[in-house]
Amino acid sequence: MKRMIESVSEFCSVTGMKLTCSTCKWLSYAMSDGSRVVSSELLNINDEEIKPIAVDDCLKYLGALIATNRGAKMKFTDELLIKVRHQINQLLLSPLIFSQSLDAVKRLVIPQLDFIFMNGVVSITDKKTIDENIRCLIQKKLKCPGLPVEVVYTNWKDGGMIIPHLVDRLEVL
C-alpha cells in the first residue's frame, strides 16, 4: 500500500495534481488470537497521516458499504432502512392519488431496498416489517383494511398491484 501511495504521489508531482489527505481513509486489520484488530501501520500523503477506519466502523465508497464485520454493516443498514420507511410513509400518506403513490413506491423505494439488500445486512424480521408497512399503508390509502395480502403482490392483469414481496426479493438478489 505504501508503494502504491508513493507511485501515485510521484505521478501527481509530475502532472501537477495534488492528493488531499483529508478526503482519504483506509481500512486495514490483522488477525490476533482469532479476532480482528486495527493494523498499527501508518500511511501518509504529503506528510499528513491518513485516518484509519476502526474495525467496528464502516466506509461508504461509491454508495456501497465496506466493512470488516457484520455489526458495522447492520448499523449502516439500519440507518438506511429508517430513511426508506420514512419515504414509504410520506409517499403513501401524501395527497397523491393512489396510482401515483403506488408508482412512486415501485420506482423510488423498491430500487433503494434492492441496493440495501445487495450491499448491507438485513434481517428477515426487518424485511417482513417493511413489507407489512407497505401493505398497511396501501390499505390505509385505499381505506380497505381487509385487503387480501395476495392482491398487493399479484400482477395487475390479475387484479393486483405488482409490489414485490421483499422476503422473496432478497433471495433473488
Describe this structure in words.
Helices cover 52% and strands 14% of the residues. By secondary structure, the protein is of the alpha+beta class. The chain has a two-stranded parallel sheet. A hairpin with a 2-residue loop joins strand 2 and strand 3. Helix 2 runs antiparallel to helix 3 (98-119) and helix 2 runs parallel beside helix 4 (124-142). It starts with a helix and ends with a helix.
How would you summarize this macromolecular structure in one to three sentences?
Helices cover 52% and strands 14% of the residues. It has 173 residues and is α+β, with helices and mostly antiparallel strands. Strand 4 (44-45) and strand 5 (48-49) form a beta hairpin.
Globular, elongated, flat, extended or rod-shaped: what is the shape? elongated
C-alpha-based Rg, rounded: 23 Å
Structural class: alpha+beta
The low-confidence parts are none
Please state how the strands of the largest beta sheet are arranged side by side.
1-6
Task: Tell me the strand percentage band.
Answer: 5-15%
What's the helix count? 6
E-strand count: 8
| Element-by-element helix/strand order | HEEEEEEEEHHHHH
Q: How would a crystallographer describe the biggest sheet?
A: 2 strands, parallel
Ends apart, CA distance between termini: 33 Å
Mean pLDDT: 84
